[in-house]
Amino acid sequence: MDYTDIYEEYPELRDLKPRRTSPRRSRKRGLTNSGRLIVLLAVILAAAALLALILTVTRAETATVYGKDGEVKEVPSGELESYLAQGWYASPDDLTEIKLYAEDGSVVLARRGDAERLAEKGYYSDITKAYTNMYSEEGRTLYVPNTMVDVYKSRGWHDKLGDIITSLYKSDGSKLAVPKAQAAAYMEEGWTDKLLKVAKKMIGPKGEEEMVFNDDVDAYLKKGWTVAKRVVDPDQPMIALTFDDGPGKYTDKLLDCLDKNNSAATFFVLGELVETYPDTVKKANDIGCEIANHTWDHLNATSAGGAETAESVRRTSDAVKELIGKGTALYRPCYGVYNEDVLGEVGLPAIMWSIDTLDWKTRNADSTYNTVMDDVYDGAIILMHDIHEPTVEAATRLIPKLVEEGYQLVTVSELLEYRKGGAEKGQVYNSAKPE
Ligand SMILES: [Zn+2]
Asked: Is the peptide bond before 11 cis (omega within 30 degrees of 0)?
């Protein structure tokens, strides 16, 4: 680091230098050689007494100031401020040399008494105001000038400790936080960063929920607890599979696969088909899938207008509510078309997608499977249609594969809840990438 005397190197701070015009020196009084010693002594004593009296009287109204070169001076209290402004200091401690730090990385020397005024110019005695503590993936740490933070970030450093630390677990309940770069070595010794691999969410007799490490699961089972089927770990990748235009005759097969893999999907159903396949809708709800809204009969919202679309959505929601006890919370515009009028009238969050399989067009299971596996990422919302047999075939291959790759298959509401803190009415959502 480069240390600089701030008073030499920073011209704009020169005005902080003591601006002292030639100081008045106490005049030496020449003593005359008098023959009469007694008289002289008397005069000296009288003068001393007078001086002592004057000092006593005036002391309360003077202040001591300290010059940068070590001068000490008594000045009238009323003039103290002006002396300080001219570069004198109120305390000898103010002359102590200290280091100040600027955001550009310069380290300068200054007198303690100037620290407050220099802070206004961006020089801080507290290094944390000008520098940021940064962390490398290997767990090293370093103070970096604030203006260099972005440069360090581009080299892979992080300004939040949480970014480089990962939590590791064992089935006996052991926990450990290690730098991410070291995690692989720990995992070879039986640690995992996926809590759900070594713990299960369990539900107690009164409905209470708890994460229980695998070694303790049996003890909980004996106490009457059960293992929750589907658990979402917010720290692990998650995606939302969505199926439009159903339910249909292949949907049940899809539900069985989801259930077997402790996974869920969101079905944007048509109201008229809810009436045709009521048991399928109930089953989807029972296994934790979300029933969402795709209008009664695949209405083109921009042609129909906001009022008619809202009516079609409401009618569908009522049909769903009659079956499962709750209406639909999400709306997907048919053909992906909508406008402000539609969003306002429908009054639900509008859910689009970020990966379009084009399954309705290709009607090819391999194509649908490959599109998803090639494009999938944490936070994706994937569009498919469960009324086509090749789509359901693709999905039954995709679901176990995605789970194996570490993706949690969650509903759209869950995805938005974990990643966006919920979904707002009238807002449009395409995906939910982690922030
Ligand atoms: Zn559709």
From this structure: no
Its pTM stands at 0.58
Q: What is the pLDDT of residues 324-372, one digit of tens each?
A: 999 999 999 999 999 999 999 999 999 999 999 999 999 999 999 999 9
Go through 94-127 and write b for each residue having 16 or more CB atoms within 10 A of its CB, e for each that does not: bbeeeebbbbebbbbebbbbbbeebeeeebbbee
CA of 299 to the centre of ligand 1 (A): 9
Q: Given the structure tokens 């906001």, which residue do they identify?
A: 306
The full 3-state SS of 77-140, as one line of letters, equals HHHHHHHHHCCCECCHHHHCEEEEEECCCCEEEEEHHHHHHHHCCCEECCHHHCEEEEECCCCC
Instruction: Examine the residue annotation and report whether 385 is marked as an active-site residue of this protein.
Output: yes
Rounded to the nearest angstrom, the distance between the alpha carbon of 408 and the centre of ligand 1 is 25
* CA distance to 321, 415, 423, 432, per residue, from 343 (Å): 21, 21, 13, 20
> How far away, in angstroms, is 244 Cα from ligand 1 center?
5
Distance (Å, whole) CA 386 – CA 400? 17
Each residue's pLDDT tens digit, 255-312: 999 999 989 999 999 999 999 999 999 999 999 999 999 999 999 999 999 999 999 9
Residue 187: both structure tokens together: 């995992």
Query: Has domain 238-429 been given CATH number 3.20.20.370?
Result: yes
* Cα 335 to averaged position of ligand 1 atoms, centre (Å): 6
Q: Give me the amino acid identity at 291.
A: I
* Per annotation, catalytic residue among 294, 359, 385, 388: 385
By the 8 A CB rule, do 227 and 217 touch?
A: yes
> What does the pLDDT look like over 94-153, one tens digit per residue?
999 999 999 998 888 999 999 988 999 899 999 999 999 999 888 888 999 999 999 999
Distances (CA, A) of 408 to 241, 260, 264: 10, 14, 9
The domains of the chain are located at 1-18+38-125, 131-189, 194-228, 238-429
Catalytic residue flag (residue 158): no
Buried b (16+ CB within 10 A) or exposed e, 210-245: ebbbeebbeebeeeebeebebbbbeeebbbbbbbbb
d(CA 295, ligand 1 centre) in Å: 9
CA 324 – ligand 1 centroid, Å? 22
Dihedral sign computed on CA atoms, order 358, 364, 368, 370: negative
Catalytic residue of the set 244, 245, 359, 386: 244
